[in-house]
Amino acid sequence: MSSASAFLRFWWTDTVRDNFLSYVPKEDLCPLRLACHDFGVRTAPLLFRQLAITFRPSTFTKPARMVALERIGHHVRELTFNMPHGPDTFLPPLLDCVTGEEITFAYEPCCLPARSSAARLSVPTYGSWEMTDLLVKQYPPLFHAAANVSSFIRAFSALPNLKHLKISCPGQEAAHRYRRNTVDYALISLRIAVERSPLPDLDTLSLLSIHPGSLLYLNPTMGFGALPNSAKRWRQIRKLAIHMDTIPYSLTSPTDHLKFLHSYLQTFSCSVRRLVFRWNGPKGPFPLALGSEPSLTTPSPPLACPRRCHLALRPLKFARLRFMEVENATLDASQVSSFITAHRRSITEFNFEDSNLRTGTWDEALAPLTRISGNERWKKKSEEVMDVPLVLSPVGLEEGEVQRVRREQEGVMERVRKEQRHLRSPAPGTGAWGKVMGARGRGLFWGTEEHMRKFLRSSVLAWR
User: Is 88 exposed, middle or buried (0-12, 13-18, 19+ CB in 10 A)?
Assistant: First the structure.
């Protein structure tokens, strides 16, 4: 068989070809795609499976870029929308050109389809011609691109097979938390575009490094431009991850962002199955039990804000939640206990990473597990802590000798892992927890002290 025939046989076997292409680095897929038409067709699904966008004024408005997105959009499964805060996203107050007084801008998204230049000149974009003229003169092009809802809808309509949406808005300064900026207008347009575009496969949402006020604009029930059926699209979400910046928490600190968070999580109470939440910065409250937070249950002084609603928040309950993880939080044992009890019929795993208890103990927090299982066997799962030997790098050896020693060590580690799995496997009738690796397993895995001493003194390698 000639080499050309062998290659064609390999290339036309879908399983083998796709497995090979999955190991090719992305920087090599780009020139491979340009080699011929068939290479371009086969490599495009892998090359454009993940798409990252950093929003700029011409991201969704440049015609050539939108044509390219429509050509490759059906390959995209994961989209990362990144718009960091910076000087170009700051919006100054609107001032009257004659009197110099500040003018209030009541924003209402314009969701009309893309129009021609003549049609755009016939209808004001921002409510009135006077307000449109002020915004065009005083606000930068990035704002007008962020408020162009129709361009967002066109872009997301070109991604019919999108499954995972990531949104990242890092870098907001603490002094700008209570001012609306260009990022907030972009989030409004993005939310409306997701709700009005055909995205039947969207089931994963990751909000990475978002500012506290962003959830007001992403909320489909109370956000700008929301419709009665806006929440329908977000009920498709099965996996939700939120990494939110923390506002220093105390009984006297602002709580509006916590109410926004509580209302936003209620949107996913009927659909989400995997929920991961992390506070960025100082520790924050338990996001799934904000209804029992002291700062939200204590009524504020009547003169502080007479029109503010003082009704208590309803407890959150996720009907299909299977996995929950909260990181960098401060919580009460009663909150954890109530959460486990409320979700005992659905949840199978929960983690509290880098979290501290304000009141109570972890035994009190996890007491529902004893009531649910009928015994305290879950407490018997031990956690082993051991010293790990520090192995330094070799000096003065050729690359071949280093690779040979590395392969030998990998072989030893593989045998140790097999022995470890054998020791950890449960014997018949020993229960669900299995066996815990004993002294012999630790000795096999780490070796004895004498063994490590001989290994480090070996003359094969020069260690430092």
Answer: middle
